[in-house]
Design brief:
- With 69 residues, the chain is mainly alpha-helical.
- It is 41% helix and 0% strand.
- The protein is built from 2 helices and no strands.
């Protein structure tokens, strides 16, 4: 099985997060990708999904603040 890279050719590293703004991978994950096993690629994609979801929540203004009734 060949798992495609999550790269979308928006290769810009975010200084604050340390992740690529296009694919949400770290530099070590990007360099590891081509030689990683399918299991490792799936693990990276899982991390990417979590990071993307967290970024989406942040952009929507849902930063986890406590709300009191």
């Amino acid at each position: 099985m060949s798992i495609p890279s999550p790269c979308i050719n928006v290769c810009r590293m975010n200084e604050a997060s340390g992740y690529c703004e296009g694919c949400y991978r770290s530099i070590p994950e990007i360099t590891e990708w081509s030689r990683a096993s399918d299991a490792r690629k799936q693990a990276i994609l899982g991390e990417v999904a979590s990071r993307r979801a967290a970024a989406d929540l942040f952009e929507l203004g849902l930063r986890g603040e406590c709300v009191r009734d």
